[in-house]
């Protein structure tokens, strides 16, 4: 199995440790992982702001970088959703269709494709609250949604339960948006900040020491809110926990 690692722009700039943990974690399972050095953005910011046609060149570059791989894996649900469901500014060639269908968010790749049943190296003796990004939850179906009548499930929690020493803190409103929303946090700063503060308040009430997610973008927003609120919370990507980080 040949895997291409896609590291989103904001991870590369602000949370490179997440990209490193993702690479190391995939290699622990004996996968051949490559990082195409010419990769850039997947086009999500343009699409989210209504500039879909302007994303065409970015999408073309993405396909050129990743069309040779069996799977494309990324530590971001929102970017996965962009590639899989919104990469429509370019002609839908066989290469484009291949890339779109073979792009996976890290958690779903571990859970659905590799079907991982153990992380023997992982230990995280902390109380942890889980945040699911809206795109990851509602478009990738990484977990059940509280607004739907369906059997509860959670792929990230299923993986985290294999980590020694971890304890879960349950949120009162686990599916509620944190307010990041990409460019929404720029154009609707006040609303975005208040939503983030509400999310942090819920996390504090849960008694969590750490908050984890498969999306660094949401955690970056929440961590910023938490710091301004003086909240004693720490934020860590799920890739780091599964890769063996202790704190």
TrEMBL record:
Top-rank lineage group of the source organism: Bacteria
Any single GO CC term annotated in Swiss-Prot or TrEMBL for this entry: cytosol
InterPro entries xrefs: Cys_rich_dom (IPR004017)
Domain called Cysteine-rich: residue spans: 3-83, 128-221
GO molecular function: oxidoreductase activity
Pfam (any one): CCG
Record-given protein name: Iron-sulfur (Fe-S) oxidoreductase
Species in which this protein is naturally found: Gluconobacter oxydans NBRC 3293
Classification of source organism: Bacteria, Pseudomonadati, Pseudomonadota, Alphaproteobacteria, Acetobacterales
